Amino acid sequence: MEHTNVFAVILALLLNFVVFAPNKLETSTTPATSLSSLITTISTPPLSSTTTSLVTSTTSLPQTTTTTTTQQSEWFVTSNMSDARQEHTASVLSNGKVLVTGGFNHNIGFLNSAELYDPSTSTWTTTGSMIDAREHHTASVLLNGKVLITGGVNDNGRLKSAELYDPSTGIWTTTGSMTNARDLHTASVLTNGLVLVTGGVSIGNIFLYSAELYDSSAGTWTTTGNMSDARREHTASVLTNGNVLVTGGAGIEFSAVDSVELYDPSPSTWANTGNMTNARGQHTASVLSNGLVLVTGGYNGRIALNSAELYSLFRTN
After folding, report:
1. What separation in angstroms does the CA of 67 have from each of 60, 64, 148?
2. pLDDT beyond 60 at 42
3. Cα separation of 238 and 182, whole Å?
4. Topology of 182-316 in CATH?
5. Global pTM?
6. What is the DSSP code string of 190-251?
7. What's the whole-number mean pLDDT along residues 35-56?
8. Distance of CA 125 to CAs 79, 115, 132, 140, 292, Å?
9. How many other CB atoms are found less than 10 A from the CB of residue 235?
């Protein structure tokens, strides 16, 4: 009897555990249906032991798209000039058009023709012809908008003549001639409006040291101080302080020079400055926005150059 009572107690305890044991909490995860959404699943326990429901909330974060645009530089053709030409000039006028003058054509010879390029229509139109055909000349846009043509060479030899182009009329008129005939020279419009012409080659293949100034208000030329070195195929750059930097070129012995000179318009004097690293002629010189001058390429008397160098007027260490 005693064993029977013990067994009954144990059986009652087991039945009570099975009936009243808490249900196991079940959780589920909602699968993501889009790669562009981030799924967050929150499981909330049941509020009572008799409830097995699951509450699920989903939060979607907006997709962020980054687009990278790459711009590619390219060249494309535009309409052709009326005349094929080399050794000519091109000048951007105040109205945005480009004036091309003179040069040499192997079928025609030296050219006096001029034409205008209109960027808005990509077309060329002929304009009045120069009085003298010429190549190796210079073209300078003056402060009054007119274009000054100086020197050069044609069938008659090297020229000292100069002429003016008026964009408003398309007409050329003569102006005062230079003191020296010259080609392969430079012409620079100074901040005071005068035009500085330097160096070049004159009649008899004489390399020139000389420089002269053109006054557009009077149409006259006056000589100014000579450079230290005679030179042709050099560069002349108007610096931010108004001085003119002359670099390199071919010297008297037809060899490239590395010498550099500065012209100061105020006292009209020349002064030597630091030489270039490489002697060079037929090169380019560009005044950068930071005031430095970039010199590139050219010919040193033996080979063409790929070197470049910078000139600083106010160098700081």
Report:
1. 22, 10, 51
2. no
3. 21
4. Neuraminidase (2.120.10)
5. 0.78
6. -TTS-EEEE--EETTTEEP--EEEEETTTTEEEEEPPPSS--BS-EEEE-TTS-EEEE--B-
7. 38
8. 11, 6, 20, 20, 37
9. 24
As a whole number of angstroms, the distance between CA 5 and CA 14 comes to 15
Which residue from 179, 79, 99 is spatially nearest to 142, judged by alpha carbons?
99
Strand 284-287 with 201-202, pairing:
unpaired
Determine contact, residues 117/105, Cβ cutoff 8 Å.
no
Dihedral of CA atoms 151, 153, 157, 162 in degrees, nearest 10, equals -20
Report domain extents, the chain: 78-177, 182-316
228-276 residue pLDDT tens? 999 999 999 999 999 999 999 999 888 999 999 999 999 999 999 999 9
Strand partners, 188: 196
Q: What are phi and psi of 261, to 5 degrees?
A: -135, 155
Q: Which two tokens stand for residue 219?
A: 């149409």
The Cα–Cα gap between 266 and 192 comes to: 10
Nearest to 235 by CA among 243, 244, 226: 244
Q: 161-166 contacts: CB < 8 A, separation 24 or more? A: 161/131, 161/132, 162/214, 162/221, 163/130, 163/131, 163/132, 165/99, 165/101, 165/114, 165/127, 165/128, 165/130
d(CA 164, CA 132): 12
